[in-house]
């Protein structure tokens, strides 16, 4: 039986020596017993396309607006703004892959093998880059608040150089398994886009990538985020003033949002891994429950890419003002282009003058 946890697609097949074979997506490949029934498959075919569509539209609007605003305030970007731009680009790239996973969950994989590898690569890059960027943001806030007097140079180095080596390089390198193992196969007449590991070492590959995923995707960045924000809370709790209290409240929200979205998914993934290893004794009821909750909590984790623009941008008054200015500029720029087509001679010169005056203001 083949289970694609990412897409929720379930295919049954008979492997050599009557063994059970799983071709899961990303790090979620594992052997499962035949008791994993069609009720989870039917649930995923309805649940996943619905939630993915919601995340797609909400993510496009939120992250698209962040990218638009950051593009209109190049000269006034802070270090934190640069991280926000990295994060929104990663999230925006990811949400563009969700329609493919929606189709895969509903009717199976009906795209070429190139897109199979590409979508897996996009998923992996976002998965790791987004959480690593959150860790960098926590480090930046730690330096800005706890070491405010002499941290400007360190913050600039982190935001402009180290972020590429600490975020994007590891995220890209971790896509190598997708480039090697992700492919389209035919199972019982249906096309399935999965990582297909060598049969003789399938358990070892699965467990190895599963622990890598948990370590890089949660444990390491989670410890950095938790440590930095706990120190920040301790620092702000001894400060007075409205702005300090507001910063403390925002910090608590950031911590709760991150762990509320990701922790349930990784708990389910860890339980499933322990069942695969044999640490937890499993039965049909537990397996069905765990796989259903992996689908639910994974969708919840994806929803974090929609929360990022709200948590890291919309909570700030500066961003609200910048967003209004950017949208006004886009709207007025569109109007000026329309008017310029209708005008000739002196009117066109006047329009260009008005446009230049506006953008320089």
From TrEMBL:
Any Pfam family hit: 7tm_1
PROSITE patterns: G_PROTEIN_RECEP_F1_1 (PS00237), G_PROTEIN_RECEP_F1_2 (PS50262)
Subcellular location: Cell membrane; Early endosome; Late endosome; Lysosome
Keywords from the named record: Cell membrane, Disulfide bond, Endosome, G-protein coupled receptor, Glycoprotein, Lysosome, Membrane, Receptor, Sulfation, Transducer, Transmembrane, Transmembrane helix
Gene Ontology CC entries for this record: early endosome; external side of plasma membrane; late endosome; lysosome
Protein's membrane topology: Multi-pass membrane protein
GO biological process: brain development; calcium-mediated signaling; cell chemotaxis; immune response; neurogenesis; positive regulation of cytosolic calcium ion concentration
Transmembrane segments: 51-71, 83-101, 121-142, 162-182, 211-232, 253-280, 292-315
InterPro entries per record: CCR1-9-like (IPR050119), Chemokine_CXCR4_N_dom (IPR022726), Chemokine_rcpt (IPR000355), CXCR4/ACKR2 (IPR001277), GPCR_Rhodpsn (IPR000276), GPCR_Rhodpsn_7TM (IPR017452)
Positions of the G-protein coupled receptors family 1 profile domain: 62-312
Source domain of life: Eukaryota
GO molecular function: C-C chemokine binding; C-C chemokine receptor activity
Keyword Transmembrane found: yes
Biased composition (Low complexity): 346-361
Region (Disordered) residue spans: 340-361
Subunit annotation: Monomer. Can form dimers.
Family in the record: Belongs to the G-protein coupled receptor 1 family.
PANTHER family recorded: C-X-C CHEMOKINE RECEPTOR TYPE 4, CELL ADHESION MOLECULE
Name this polypeptide is given: C-X-C motif chemokine receptor 4
Annotated source species: Leptobrachium leishanense (Leishan spiny toad)
Gene expressing this chain: CXCR4
